[in-house]
Write a structure and sequence with these properties.
Layout (H helix, E strand, L loop, with lengths): L4 H25 L5 H13 L3 H20 L10 H20 L7 H22 L8 H13 L3 H24 L7 H29 L4 H10 L1
Helix pairs in contact: 1-4, 1-5, 2-3, 2-7, 3-4, 3-6, 5-8, 6-7, 8-9
């Protein structure tokens, strides 16, 4: 794995950037953001905090949650999730800036298309960044910590985590802003579509991605392509 670390790092950071591009598109659509982005966007809506900074703060909070859950089992290397969160936050700031150059959509049809594009971008970003196997984002790290500590299936933890993030965001916006804020139909679309689109990317595109990452043998690559 060490011999191809440069390739993995490139794919990893491209994946993170594509994810933040998807988040920025969802913010621009004004139909609600994906569950994992709902808390940072709520901080932006309620307290006016720039979303990139809110994202960094949120990631630091999730690392703290991991420390509380894992205690002595927390590994020092997982603190690297904080600088990764910083990078992710700056990517978010940059992509949100780029979206200011795009006209604000006025029609629901365009907004829905933007949400669909957002789901595809987020799914593709995950498709790239996770298999690079560098360092998970703090969200995945927190979910894995809960799953490992309390022996709950990761899929169930993810569902509960997403529902909790959306619920907290919704209640905060309703009580303080008297509107939905970061939660909307786009949140539902993201929750349903991202996983579905990711499975399709994995099914049809994993061969060339793994070839870039130098994972597996040549024979395994051929087997993967023969199944597509």
């Amino acid at each position: 794995m060490k011999e191809n670390i440069k390739r993995r790092l490139i794919v990893y950071f491209i994946g993170l950037f594509v994810m933040t591009a998807g988040i920025a598109v969802s913010v621009k659509s004004d139909l609600g953001v994906s569950p994992v982005s709902s808390i940072p966007y709520t901080l932006t809506c309620v307290w006016g905090m720039e979303m990139g900074k809110a994202t960094i703060l949120f990631h630091c909070g999730l690392v703290l949650l991991q420390i509380c859950v894992l205690r002595k089992n927390f590994k020092i290397k997982n603190l690297l999730q904080i600088p990764v969160g910083v990078v992710f936050g700056y990517f978010t700031t940059f992509c949100n800036y780029l979206m200011t150059l795009v006209p604000t959509p006025q029609f629901i049809g365009i907004q829905l298309v933007m949400m669909l594009a957002s789901a595809v971008l987020i799914a593709f970003g995950i498709f790239l960044y996770l298999p690079a196997d560098i360092m998970p984002l703090a969200g995945e790290g927190a979910m894995k910590a809960i799953s490992d500590t309390y022996h709950i299936a990761f899929a169930r933890v993810k569902i509960a985590f997403d529902v909790s993030m959306v619920t907290i965001s919704l209640l905060t916006c309703v009580f303080l802003l008297h509107k939905l804020g970061s939660v909307g139909i786009g949140t539902v679309i993201a929750a349903v579509l991202v996983g579905t689109v990711l499975s399709q990317f994995t099914k049809y595109c994993s061969g060339w991605r793994d070839r870039i990452l130098h994972k597996g043998t040549e024979r395994e690559y051929k087997l993967q392509f023969s199944k597509q």
